[in-house]
Here is the input.
Amino acid sequence: MTSTLYYIHDPMCSWCYGFAPTWQKIMDQLPDDIAVEYVVGGLAPDSDEPMPEATTRMVKGAWHKINEMLGTEFNFDFWENNTPRRSTYPACRAVLAARAQGYEKEMIAAIQTAYYRHALNPSDDHVLIGLADELSMGIEKFKSDLNSDEINQELMGQIMLSRKLTHRGFPSLVLAHNGNHHFIEHDYLDADVTLSKVDKIIS
Here is the structure.
C-alpha cells in the first residue's frame, strides 16, 4: 500500500530554506512506495504595505539564527536593496502555477535562491515571472495562471489542507499511512532521524 509523506512549507520560509539540503537527502532515500506531496501553507497573505520594523527585526533575527545553527548562507543585501513586504502568497501561487507545468520543485529552489542568495524580492510578480522565464517554462501560461482565480482557489485549498494536517508551522512533515496521519519530527541537519521515524511507522 502506498503511503504519502506531506511536506508542508512556504517558498519564502527561511527555515524551509535552511532545511532544503536535508530534505533533499530524505527524498533521495525514501522507499519507492512512499509518495511525496508538497503542500504550500501560505505564511503571509497579499500585502502592498512595507514590512513593519518589528517584523523586519524578527525575520532578520531568524536569518542570523539559521545561519548560526545550520550554516545556511543568506545575502543580507536584501534588506538594503528592497522594500520588504510581509507577503508570501504571490510566491506560493508561483509554485502552484509552476506545478501546473511540472516545475514545482524547480520553482521552489529558484525562489529560495533569488530571495536568500541574490537579494531579490519574491513578493513581486515581476521577479516570479523572471524566474519562470529562466526555468524555460511556458511564460505566457505562467503569467496567465499566476494571479488567476483557479490558482488562488488552489492556494486556499492548500492552506486548508496544511492546517488540517498540522498546526506545527513550516516546514512540517506528516506521513499518511494505513488511514492514519503521523506528524514526523525532523532534524534540520540529520536526514537519518526523519528516515528512521518514517521506517518505524511503515514497518
The chain has nine helices and four strands. The first strand starts at residue 3 and ends at 9. The chain has a mean pLDDT of 97. The CA atoms of residues 144 and 166 lie 32 Å apart.
